[in-house]
Amino acid sequence: MSALSPHSSLSDLLKASQQVTANNNSNNNNNNNNHKQEVTTALRVSELHIPGYRETKIPFILKEEDLIYGNENVLTCLEEIKYSSNDYQSLIPHESGYLLHKTARPIFSAQECSDIVNEAEAIGSLMGWTTKRHGNYPTTDIPLVELPMTLKFLRKSLVQRIYPLLRTQFKDYLPPGDAACKLRVADGFVVKYDAEGGQSELKPHRDGSVFSFNIALNSVEEFEGGGTWFQSLNDAVKIDQGQIVSHASGILHGGHAITSGKRYILVAFVILEGYDSWSMRFYNSVRNL
Fold first, then answer.
1. What distance in Å separates the CA atoms of residue 253 and residue 11, rounded to the nearest whole number?
2. pTM for this one?
3. How far is the first Cα of the chain from the last one, in angstroms, to the nearest whole number?
4. 3-state SS of 175-235?
5. Mean pLDDT, the chain, as a whole number?
6. pLDDT of amino acid 64
7. Which residue, 29, 116, 189, 257, shows the most beta carbons closer than 10 Å to its own?
8. How far apart are CA 63 and CA 156, in angstroms?
């Protein structure tokens, strides 16, 4: 592997890891053209454009204007929600912790979820739903940067509800020091699965981040099937409106097919800012589970 600085991006590390695998395969088989394809297929990473995360995380960072209440320019204070292991179910044990969690109750209200879906459909009717934004494993989605009301709501929710949840769920893996305060959403989007003429599933893949989460935006009564499939379980994890599934991005997972109706979820990729080397080590430690 070529030398990597302590500040090498996760993408650099991923590519270096892939190159080592490719070189090792080449030593065992002289068909180099086939090996590149085999390595890419085996890794099944949905995104490799992680250096761009330095810029894409910016819209998700809380702004002072997000805290202004009403027309009186009064700054509000966000109080973080405290969670315990009673607030979620943990699955896929690994070392001292668990790589997959689902909340026992909704984190977003039904109205908050409906507002997100309504804004996504309104914007989608104007600009269309994207289908090629993710090169390797595309979804039918609307980027959150195109949804101003949802984005403002999410920035506050990340600080108040979601980051505290992730810190509690993955505390056994996070490095010591200030790492727990360095969680950053680097990309987020609303996905629509449509059994009638749209995308109904997403093939198994790995996300190019540290942690991922998805929030169910509509009721399970509105579709059949669905859920997030995990190779480690050989089963799909299902949640109802407002609940969250969170997991290590490197474990193989996919969108289980729906057979009727429409399913909406909010998906986000989370990085650990300033901890790229640790992130790659963690990613490689879980991606074959």
1. 20
2. 0.80
3. 24
4. CCCCHHHCEEEEEEEEEEEECCCCCCCEEEEECCCCEEEEEECCCHHHEEECCEEECCCCE
5. 82
6. 83
7. 116
8. 9
